[in-house]
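I would like you to sit down with the record closing this message with an eye to the fold:
=====
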Amino acid sequence: MKYLRVLPEIECWPTWVRRGKQFENVDPGSLPISFELAAALRDWSDRWDATYDLEDDPGNPRFLSVDVERQFWREGAEIAAGLRSELGPDWTIEYDPRTSYPSAHV
């Protein structure tokens, strides 16, 4: 069984494959998924990066509103569902933003 975590992280790909006990950050394009889904992952990651002010406040993402943030996390759930569909039963897909971001407005 292969294990993939979908989780945005500043200046990283949002896809993390478990290798033993560790997770390795991997380019979505390296996964056996469609070009469209890989592009959606990259776009989602870019939007995450855009929530940060790396110069003045690099530790805090800031969405324009709670509704914008909720939409972002909903899109992540849709992407995770797409990964489940395309990767099939040999993969476990984890998507739970509150694990890493407890204050997320999901």
Observations:
- The CA atoms of residues 44 and 76 lie 7 Å apart.
- The first strand starts at residue 2 and ends at 6.
